[in-house]
Amino acid sequence: MAFIFNKILVFVIIAVSTATSSPLNDSCTISSYDSVSSVVSSCWSIVMESFTVPGGQQLTMNLMTGATVTVKGTITFEHNEWTGPLVQIYGSRITFQNAGGVFDGQGASYWDGKGGSGSTKPKFFRIKTTGGSTFNDIVLKNCPVQCVSISSASDTTLKGWTLDVSAGDKGGGHNTDGFDLSSSHGITIENAVVKNQDDCVAINQGYNYYFRNMTCSGGHGLSLSVGLNKNSGDVNTVRNVTFTDCVVKDSMNGIHIKTHKDGGDGAITDVTYNNIQLSGIVNYGINIQENYANGGSSGDPVGNVPITNLQLSSVTGTMSGGKKSMAVYILCGTNGCSNWNWWDVSITHAKKTNSCNFTPNGFTC
Ligand SMILES: *[C@@H]1O[C@H](CO)[C@@H](O)[C@H](O)[C@H]1NC(C)=O
Ligand SMILES: *[C@@H]1O[C@H](CO)[C@@H](O)[C@H](O)[C@H]1NC(C)=O
Ligand SMILES: *[C@@H]1O[C@H](CO)[C@@H](O)[C@H](O)[C@H]1NC(C)=O
């Protein structure tokens, strides 16, 4: 009798404990900011419902290896003048996916037309994942300033993202970069739509980056900006980057590569732009300048960050026809440019004639 009673008791205890830790629907749904850290530290399958992140706080998700996060709700961030980022994701082999959710940075409450040099605005979404992580169909709206930064990440793929800062076009959005990449390697971004007011993609540092089917509008184009760091070496190095099958429209530039002569030495090697379609480009279709200093183009170019093996194929389309428009501008420092191979580069409707102090193979300036 006692034996049977014991068995029943054990059964009841197991049943009760299974019910209270009901994995998917109770403890593993995040519906308030307060529950984030306990859910993230104990669940492999997490659902994010709608909630608000208090001003000045960070939505930090230090995910368990192999965790899956599904975003179902609208996650908003209260206004606060701090540097952010508002969201920071860590983890290895994670899957971050969307099911109707949105991250809304409430940009309109910050925009003053001055971006990074006006009032302090938080960066939005930082990714620091590794080990074959994927982020699918994520939607970010109204970035206060830079939208996504991928930093100290590796082996991570972003697919089907939407970054929509179009409300900032007339609303004072500025420096709202789409994807910024540094200190990372093995990053793929595909099928992304970016509507913003600065670079669609900006690469500062890193290697083995692949971008396919990006559709960029309103911003500054597909960019590399290298040499900002005062130290020399890897901190100012970009290697093996491909952009393929991308569209850039109604933007300041199509392709933009700038090197900073007031920083350290570095290198840009093995960069390919293939099948890039441009339309309504206001300033430069292709703009490559080795003379940035103090944040702007200035004076004579310097070859401290040489650009070697730059391939362009099928870069075609139209400028806006406005008075600043120039299809191709190339300004290389001494020994700053070598082994550039361009074919089928054809951009029409420019008002100004091209300007090149270096001529790529296969291209007539
Ligand atoms: C959790 O919710 C989903 C959908 O709402 C449902 O299909 C599933 O059976 C629930 N699981 C548990 C353990 O209650
Ligand atoms: C390109 O991306 C868009 C937007 O995500 C998507 O609708 C389209 O199917 C993609 N095309 C290809 C060929 O992957
Ligand atoms: C260049 O990067 C791609 C990933 O984008 C990778 O598959 C390829 O192996 C890399 N090539 C070299 C030579 O490292």
Automatic annotation (TrEMBL):
Similarity comment: Belongs to the glycosyl hydrolase 28 family.
The name this protein goes by in its record: endo-polygalacturonase
The species this protein was found in: Rhynchophorus ferrugineus
Source domain of life: Eukaryota
Subcellular localization: Secreted
InterPro entries associated with the record: Glyco_hydro_28, Glycosyl_hydrlase_28, PbH1, Pectin_lyas_fold, Pectin_lyase_fold/virulence
PANTHER family: ENDOPOLYGALACTURONASE D-RELATED, POLYGALACTURONASE
SUPFAM superfamilies: Pectin lyase-like (SSF51126)
Keywords assigned by UniProt, alphabetized: Cell wall biogenesis/degradation, Disulfide bond, Glycoprotein, Glycosidase, Hydrolase, Repeat, Secreted, Signal
GO cellular component, one term: extracellular region
Main location: secreted
Leader sequence residues: 1-21
Enzymatic reactions: (1,4-alpha-D-galacturonosyl)n+m + H2O = (1,4-alpha-D-galacturonosyl)n + (1,4-alpha-D-galacturonosyl)m
Enzyme class: hydrolase
Gene Ontology biological process terms from the UniProt entry: cell wall organization; pectin catabolic process
Entry EC no(s): 3.2.1.15
GO function terms (MF aspect): polygalacturonase activity
Pfam families according to UniProt: Glyco_hydro_28
